[in-house]
Amino acid sequence: MEAFDSELQSIYLALICVACVLLVHYKTQVLHLDADSIPLPRVRFSDLIIPLGIYIVLSTTLYAFAYLLLNSIGWVDPDLPDDLVLESFHPYIEMVIMSICLLCMLAYCKYSPEGYLDHFFWNITHERSWRFLGYNLFLGVKTYFSAFPFVFLMNALCVLFYAIFIGEVIEEQEAVSFFIKSIDNHSDLFFSILLIIFIIPLLEEIIFRGFIHSSLRQYLGRFWGMITSSSIFALFHFSTGQGWKNLEIVLSLFVLSLFITWTFEKRRTLMAPLGLHMTFNAVSVVALSLTH
Fold first, then answer.
1. pLDDT digits over 70-88, tens only?
2. What is the DSSP letter of 113?
3. CA angle 109, 114, 116 (to 5 degrees)
4. pLDDT at 162
5. What's the pLDDT tens digit per position in 195-212?
């Protein structure tokens, strides 16, 4: 009963915060999206094959190579199930694999005939400058305070659903479990923070906002492009090992992704969504560190 009351209090608090954000929007129109005066990068649907192929093939190949390498030097416990082998080396392996994927993705964007790197990061109405990048990164950070109440509300509603219909849900998001395991080891913690706050957000923004949303938007329009790309982003974080926790993770990340995509639509540069994505992950890291 106490847990139920606690979740209701969380929902009430979230509703108050959401109401405040909506009131600010009503007064300032801060969430309003202007007309398409500045075009988004033109990404054809066929152009998705190469960047998505780079990520899928490269990450799969590198994980397999890591397993073979660890096995060849005798670092693999023969009694350990295959799905747990890489987990004991997770921070280092994940760091190397995601870094290689990111560098390859940046290289493709840089040297592609379409010049995707320029289109994704530089708004065509401004000169190229560090000030422009920093300003949009800061706007993304500011947007966190508008997005968080909605994400918090969705999270609280899911937890209340668990309390009423399912009971206690003990599964954790895989990324959360990964970070918690690294807290007690300083080197693991360093690589985990670098990965969660910087590398993964940049890689995901290039893939999901840069390529996927820009492409879908041309065929579906702004609204349905945002809905579809946000759904893909949320479902990308689905995992069978997360059990019922998937409901909370997928729905909360869908709401977050709507705001991230909104910043891309608003500013026409990946620096703004990157700022929001990094801030969300950074706050989550701090919260987990304080509670564990």
1. 777 666 555 555 555 555 5
2. T
3. 35
4. 81
5. 999 999 999 999 999 999
CA distance 165 to 160: 9
Give dist(CA 256, CA 284) in Å, integer.
13
Torsion of CA 67, 72, 78, 80, to 10 degrees: -20
76, 85 Cβ separation under 8 angstroms:
yes
User: What is the rounded distance in angstroms from the CA atom of residue 86 to the CA atom of residue 94?
Assistant: 9
Residue with tokens 């969380």: 10
| Token pair for 284 | 């989550």
Q: For the packed helices 90-111 and 186-194, what is the interaxial angle rounded to 10 degrees?
A: 30
User: By the 8 A CB rule, do 264 and 136 touch?
Assistant: no
Residues, the chain, total?
Answer: 292
The pair of three-digit structure tokens given for residue 15, joined into one six-digit string: 């509703």
Q: Among 150, 147, 154, which residue's Cα sits nearest to residue 262?
A: 147
